[in-house]
Amino acid sequence: MDGFVKMASLGEVPPGSAKEIEHDGRIVALFNVDGAISAIDGICPHQGGPLADGPVEGTCVVCPWHGWQFDVNTGKSSINARIKQQVYEVKLDGDDIWVRVS
Fold this sequence. Notes:
Layout: E1 4-9, E2 18-23, E3 26-33, E4 36-41, E5 56-57, E6 60-62, E7 69-71, E8 87-88, E9 90-93, E10 96-100
Antiparallel strand pairs: 1-10, 2-3, 3-4, 4-8, 5-6, 6-7, 9-10
């Protein structure tokens, strides 16, 4: 899987949860929304809050520091249309979660 890195296993990100992963100097936030895994840049652009620590409402994660909101599938901000988190492609291989980081 060219460009993909194993980030976690499904057991580490059960439905309704999130996990922060550091890889090669970048922070990736993994989310499991109703069994669908998504991955976005895990650092809020506002003041660097950890998005994986924020509550998820539907497909929207809320930064725990100041309430900025991002769709975990598209990376788009619901507060400011000009702001978008990087979204990473995810593939599952058995129980392994692979994320394209390049």
